[in-house]
# Entry
Amino acid sequence: MKKIEAIIKPFKLDDVREALSEIGITGMTVSEVKGFGRQKGHTELYRGAEYMVDFLPKVKLEIVIASEDVDRCVEAIMETAQTGKIGDGKIFITEVERVIRIRTGEENDTAI
# Structure
């Protein structure tokens, strides 16, 4: 099993969720996060004063799936989240040792 963490632009969330749903990925956790990479934030004007916005709003998706589904999942995220501009985000893939469904006690593939 693998865990995919994807950091994407917030306005792309619905498109990505829909694309994942189309390939059979139904469960995910979504968090509103803030961060920066190469784009390093930007300046904004508020009540006549200019200030620096260091952390930009992003959305973090967390998906635990069977190892054989990783490539399809990553491809779906990349195709729908990509704008071609700086700040499109990142995808992290890590190994998951064990999954347990709390309600039933099922483990691993049957728990996801």
The chain has a mean pLDDT of 89. Residues 2 and 95 are 5 Å apart (CA to CA). Helices lie at 13-22, 70-81. Strands lie at 2-8, 29-35, 42-46, 49-53, 56-65, 90-95.
